[in-house]
Amino acid sequence: MSRVELQRRGARRSRRADGGGRERVAFSSNPLLTVALPAWRSKLLLFMLFVGFVALGGRAFYLMGGVTTDFLQRQGEARYARTLEVPATRGRVTDRNGIVLASSVPARAIWAIPDDVEAEAAELAELARLLQLGVPELKRRLADEDRSFVYLHRQVDVEIADRIAALKIAGVHSSREFKRHYPEGPTSAHIVGFTNVEDRGQEGIELAYERQLAGRAGSRRVIKDRLGRVVEDDWLREPVDGRDLALSIDNRVQYIAFSALKAAVEKNQARAGAALVIDVHSGEVLALANWPSYDPNARGRLSGDSIRNRAITDTFEPGSTMKPFAIATALELGKVRPDTRIQTAPGRLTIGDRTISDAHPHGVLTVEEVVAKSSNIGTAKIALELPPQALWDTYTALGFGQAPRLGFPGAVAGRLRPAKTWRPIEQATISYGHGVSVTLVQLARAYSAIARDGELVPLTLTKIDEPPVPVRVLSAQTAAALRKMLEMAVGDEGTAPAARIAGYRVAGKTGTAYKLKNGVYVKEYVASFVGFAPASDPRVVIAVMVDEPSGGAYYGGQVAAPVFAQIAGATLRTLQVAPDGPLEAPRQMVALRSPR
Amino acid sequence: MIVRALVVLLVALLFASALGLVTAQFRTRSLFVDLERSQQDARQLDVDYERLTIELARLSQPAAVERAALKLGFRAADPRQTVYLNLPQASAATPVAPGPRK
C-alpha cells in the first residue's frame, strides 16, 4: 500500500469521527454559490423538451402512420425485397414414340462491360480458351469503348460459365438463358425447324407451334435475408411451362427416308431431293426428309437453300405421277374401262399447233397399260374425252391447287388454273402433269386416296389419337382398278421395276418432268416416284422427288424408284407389317422403256 | 390485488406470445429456406434429367446405332433371311416371328 493511499484512508476515518454533532454543509450548497434563477426558465426548458418530443412523435407518425409512407417503404424494400423473373421452360418436341427431337436446357450468356474489365493477360487467355475465342478476338470485343455492354458468347454451357465465374474477372458477367438441343441433327432438321438465341421458334414446327411450346415466364416478389437467401415469397405471376409436342414422325422411318434420299441425291449428282412417308390409315406423316440438310445445333452456316422444306414449300411440275388422276376421272365417268384399248401409235399426237409425244412408241394399249407404261398420248387421248370441269373437280377434290392444312409455315398451294381457261392442248398436258404445279405433300396425299379405297384424310404432322373423318373422293372400284394399274407399273413391263422389294407387293407411278425455268422448258428434270405398300392392304404412301439429277440417269424409274424401294422395304419391316409378296429378291432391272 | 396479479399474468402471456411469434417467424423462414433449397435441387435434377434424355436420344438415334452396328459387322434383317411362322387361325395380319433360317 502506498503512502498516499494510507493518508487518504486516515483522512476519511477522521472525517467520520468528527462529523457526528456538527451540521454538515454540502459542497454544492455553498450559499455563496447560490444563484436565484427565475422559476419560468425551468418551466420553459421543460416545455421545449415537450415540444421537441411532440415534434419527434409527429414526425414519426408522419413517416410511419400512413400520411406519406411510400418513400421509406420503397427504400426499405429496396434493401430486402427483390422481384425475380422465373423463366418458363420451352416444351419438348418428340417423335411419335417419345424420342426427343428438340429440348431446352439452361445455359448462360457471358457478357462484359468493357470499361470495367480488369484482367491480367493469363486470365484473359484462360477466358478466351473457355469461350473458344481467340485472344485477339476477345480483346477486340473488349476494346470497343463506345459500348457499355457487349456479349462475349451466348448459350454457353453452365459448367463452362461456372468456370468463367470462378476466374472472378471484374466486369465479366453471366445471365441465364436456354439452349435448344436437337439430338437428331440434320435428319429431322426440316420438320422440327429451329429456334433463335432467344429461344423463339424460327422455322418448321418450332415456329408453327410457337405458342404451345413457348410457355410464359412468371415473376415473384421475394424477401432476402442478410445471406441472400430467399425467406419469403409472393407470386406475382406463376410461370407456365411450354407444353410438349408429339409429332407424327417416327424417328426410325425418318432416318430410313433421310439416308436413302441422301444416298440417291449424292449418287445421281442431283441438286436436291425430298421424300415423304405417310401412314395411309391415319394421315400421319411418318417421315419427311429433305436433302441438302443442315445441323440445327450449329446454325452458323445456314443458307436458304438448305433450310427449305422442299416437300411442303416447293412446287414442281409433276409429270407422269399425275396420270392416274385423269384415268380415275375417266373411269368414274364411265368413259373407259381398265381394258378399253387405246391407239397410241405412232407415238405423236398433234393438238392445235402443238405436238405431244411418247418417249417410245407403243401401239395399241389398254388403259391399264397406258398407266403401267406411262403413255402421254394414251393419257391425253383419254383426258380429251372428258369435260375440263370434271377433271378440275377431281384434281381439286384430291387437294391440288390448295395449300394443305398442315399448320406448317410456308405450305403452298401449287398452280391449277380454272377449267374454263384450259385450251385443249393444256387439258392434254395437264393430264400427264405438265402445265400444273404441285408439292410432294399434295401428291402423296392424293395417292393416299387410291391406297385407301377412294377416301381422303387430312394429313397431320402431329401425333393423333383418333383416326380422322375421311371424305370420299373416288369410288372404291375406281381406287381398286387404279391400284391394279399402279402395281402393273412396277412389273417387268412397267416403268419402275426398280421399285420392287422382297417380301412385299408394291404399287406406284414414276414421274420424269422437264423443269420450267423462266417460263421455258429446259433439259433438266425432276424425277419422282409416288407409291404405296403393301399393295394388298396399303399401310404407307411414299413419295420421292429428286431435283435435277445429273449423273446420267434422270428417269423417275431409275432415280426415284430405287429410293422408294429402299424406304418401303425398311419401313415395312420397322413397322412389322406382315409380308404379302414373294420373298425372293426382286429383279433389279432398270426401266429403259417408257420413261415418262 | 387480483387485478395486479391479472396484469402480471397477462404481461407474462403477452411476452411469451411475442417470443413465440418471433420464434415461429424464424422457423417459417428457415423452413422456407430449406424448401427453396430443395426446390432448387429438384430443378437441378430436372435439368440433369433433360440433359440425360438429350444425351440418350443422341446416342440412340438410328444413325448412331447404324454406325455401331456396321462397326460390329451387323447387317439389316431382310425378308429373305427371316422365317415367317403362320399361327393357327392365321389372318391377313399374321404376327411375324423373326428367327434365323435353318
Distance between the termini of chain A: 132 Å
- Counted beta strands of chain A: 19
> Oligomer, anyone?
heterodimer
Strand content of chain A: 15-25%
Based on CA atoms alone, the radius of gyration of chain A comes out at 42 Å
How much helix is in the residues of chain B? 55-70%
- The proportion of residues forming helix of chain A, as a percent range, comes to 25-40%
Concise description?
The complex is a heterodimer of chains A (596) and B (102). Chain A contains 21 helices and 19 strands. With 596 residues, chain A is α+β, with helices and mostly antiparallel strands.
Description:
- Chain A is 35% helix and 20% strand.
- Chain A is an alpha+beta fold.
- Among the domains of chain A are: 78-110 and 188-247, Penicillin-binding protein 2a (Domain 2) (Alpha-Beta Complex); 251-574, Beta-lactamase (3-Layer(aba) Sandwich), CATH 3.40.710.10.
- In chain A, helix 13 (323-332) packs parallel to helix 15 (376-384), helix 13 runs antiparallel to helix 19 (476-489) and helix 15 (376-384) crosses helix 17.
- Residues 14-21 and 588-596 of chain A have low confidence and may be disordered.
- Chain B contains two helices and no strands.
- Chain B has helices at 2-60, 62-71.
- The N and C termini of chain B lie far apart (110 Å).
- The model of chain B is unreliable at 92-102 (pLDDT under 50).
- The chains are: A alpha+beta (596), B mainly alpha (102).
- The interface between A and B is medium-sized, with 38 and 31 residues.
